[in-house]
Amino acid sequence: MSVSITAACTMLAGVPAFAADAEPLAASPLAQQAPGGSAANSQDIIVTGVRASLRSAQAIKRNANQIVDSVEATDIGKLPDANTVEALQRITGVQIQRRYGEGATDFDHRTQPAITVRGLTQVSNFIDGRAAISAAGGRSLDLEALPPELLAGIDVYKNPPADTIEGDIAGVVNIRTRLPFDAKGQVISATVKGNYYDRAKKTGDSFSLLYSNRFHTSIGEMGFLVNASYAKSFYQQDALIIGAFGAVPAGTNIAGAPANAQVPYGVQIYDDSGNRQRIGVAGAFQWQPSSTLLVTAQALYSRYKFYRQGKYYYYNNNGNPSTTPNANGTFTFDSAGYATSGSLSNMVFESSRFDQDLTDTVGNYTLNVKWNPSNRFKSTFDFQYLKSTYNADRNGFVISLYDKAGETPYNALHQSIVDFDLRGSSPVWNVRNPGLLSNPANYAFTYMADALQRNDADQLALRYDLEYDAEGGFLKKLRGGARYADSTVDLRGTWNAFCLVPSGANPGCNAAAGTPFVPVSAHPELAISGPSSNFFDGRTLTGGILYPSFESGSSLWDSLTKTEALFNTSPKNYFAPADLNHQTEKSISGYVTADFANKLFGLEFDGTAGVRVVNTKTGSTGVIFNSDGSMAPLDVRRSYTKALPSFNLRLHLAPKVQARFAFSQSFARPNFDQMSTNVTLNQVTQVSPITGRPSGSSGNPYLSPITSTNYDATVEWYFAPSGSLTGGLFYKQVDGFLASGTVVRTYNGTPFDIGTTVNSGKGTIKGFEIAYQQFFDFLPGIFSGFGLQANYTFVDSNVTNPFAAAGSNVPTTVPLEKLSKHSYNLVGLYQKGPVSGRLAWSWRGTYLDTTYGSGANGLPQFQKPYASLDASVSYNITKHIAVSVDAVNLLNRMTETYINTTSQPLQYTLNDRRYGFSLRATY
To answer: Does the pTM exceed 0.85?
Structure first.
């Protein structure tokens, strides 16, 4: 068992490692004390455990000059959260995606954030109040890559004011790291943890170490901090897939089938496994030579390695347009006419491997100088340099029960009859001739693929802010500032794929019908048995199957190269012009805000009004690929300016009750991968019968930002130091959502219909949130240690479906993707003496997974409600040593997706239950 850094262990019983009375708001670069706001009384300060984290988060929310929710370090560590994404799910209005056993985004959709805030994915990610980007091609930092052990807290700003860096329409997620001046003196903290993953049947481990200290010297006070972590985890993800449903073919009679009977086209499985490694190092130096000057230098580096072995076993109908129900089978149907059990004939299976080896790095280096030349005048200079890389190697390999080109399910030698049953708590399917699927002599090699991705992103940002305190009167404070940011993104990606025939690689996959494939018996070492142990609880494919394998090697790419050599070919290991895209983005922004405070009808109020003006200049260079094989360079430059007003008002209704109203306008820039420039033109003689123009495809560097007008109103009751009841309403008007579409562009004097990404459609997002937290101190004895956190969010959205067509059954309007209309968290708390614990239930309702589902005939794909029950218990052996146990996914919940209607299930997925044990020491 090795050691991983845990942000949680900075506060143990009686040890104020990072004391709660060290001005919690000072740790948050975005949360500023509003005029007239009351800071927490010192006699109420709690310096240990869960209560301290709840109090600190509540103080940030109460005293901020904007609408914000937070999770503090002890909170993060005390919950069994594997990464930063999982920690965010506890915040009201935040919903997360789960992939491969953790809160994460799908590998093949890395530019889609793993979180939504009030239903929108266009979220800005900040590190210590500074904008951060990823080299994956999106706008958001890859939050799952950041070790949570490096964090002091997370703030989610839902309607940011004008002094906040632009770039979001959903809100801002600010990751706060630790500073040496957060603590009163020396802190040494270490954690060792082990995790067991029950489906993978493997044990992961982690360790962490933190050292912080501050000193008085002849040239002022200095502080140093270093925080390092390492963690390795495993996962096994099992999935059963039921293909899209279709009508029973004419002439096929099924006993008891309704007139509108629908049966699946086929069945398949996903058998995923892999591991993750996270390495993180954060350092900070602070120097205060006088009471008017503070210098802070910080560095953060994280490296995230994700290896995924994706194994698939699926039917291949080779273009057959009809379902193949077994007329002699026994079927059952639901009330809508969809089959819930039955048999399918003419099933011919293929087996594939698509593995990924990803390395994602982020380095963020900053210098901040605060100078207060007088009590009323403050200035801040900030420098940031961020470097991010995103490297991915991928392979693909297919073996098939088809043995020659041109076969159909009706004349193939190795056909199967499948029996499926989707009733009950767990689906199941099997074949009647199981020995056929496990015999290597029945398989042939048919397809291989390789891909490389090497992305880089650099960002340089300079910022200068001024603040002037106006004494007395309505106006309390004036702020102003300017920021310059220069970003460069290079996207490099290959894709090389070909069919396999005895003569070698066949890139066009156009071998003549009857051409034999290469039998697996020619290289028997390139096949392994499956599925994984106890796959889907051991009830499906009980007779065994085969998966393709690769030659052993030092890396994925090495093993792939050796494997392709056996077939007289090699992977593509270079980047051609079509594989490259270089983008630049420069922005200059300035803002002014005014803080005000006064009384109205005997009630105190305060707030902030301001405006931010942003000029953005973009550049994208690429290549035009003409139909005759020639190429021409392409360079697109654009510039646009946006004015973003904001207004925040707080009304103090009573000493412990306040109300807020917020208004703002915001925008989110398109992802970098959507603005790539390369253009491919088809033959000018091949024209559309509708438009009369030839076609082509391209990214779209002409995309406009998505804009939003935002309204918020809240009422907040803070009835105890760590007790509150808050509620809020929100409404957003969004314009310019991005979708696939066609534009007309002229090249070489000829107009083309270019398939690309376009700004299309408007939408509205509205809803409300309610949150409650309290420790029940009024209960007697040990029961006074109990507490409760609860929150609920309702979000309703309505946006245009760009894939709807006249006369089709595709809906014209849909909700936002990844948005559950209903979600809530219930967390039972306990802290008394040396014992603390949590029992956390997170639930989110049905949501639209994708507007255009794969293989779903254009119909939207939804995910059913999902919940996770997680628990943790900690015991302080001494004031310096504590042990913890935790568990995630205790109920082993299955996730389910469906196509348009719950009668048409698509995928059932099971993930690991995770059990952890940790030992923490703090001095």
So the answer is: yes
Block residue for tokens 């909170």: 75
Q: Which amino acid is at 915?
A: Y
Q: What is the per-residue pLDDT across 61-75, written as a single tens digit (0 to 9) for each?
A: 999 989 999 888 765
Contacts of 75 (CB under 8 A, 6+ apart): 50, 53, 54, 57, 87, 90, 153
Distance CA 552, CA 821 (A): 48
Residue 238 has pLDDT above 60, yes or no: yes
Distance CA 381, CA 461 (A): 11
What separation, in Å, do the N-terminal and C-terminal C-alpha atoms of the chain show? 22
Task: Write down the pLDDT at residue 149.
Answer: 84
The reported pLDDT for the residue numbered 805 is 59
Side-chain half-sphere exposure of 878, counting CA atoms within 13 A: 5
What pLDDT is attached to residue 321?
Answer: 84
pLDDT in tens, 171-212: 999 999 999 999 899 999 999 999 999 999 999 999 999 999
Q: Is 729 exposed, middle or buried (0-12, 13-18, 19+ CB in 10 A)?
A: middle
Cα four-point dihedral sign 160, 161, 164, 168: positive
> SS3 for 95-149, per residue?
EECEECCEECCCHHHCCCCCEEECCECCEEEEECCEECCCCCCCCCCCHHHCCHH
Judge whether residue 19 has pLDDT over 80: no
Q: CA torsion angle for 467, 471, 474, 478 (degrees, to 10)? A: -10
Helices (H) and strands (E) in the chain, counts: 5, 54
- Answer yes or no: are the C-beta atoms of 719 and 58 closer than 8 Å: no
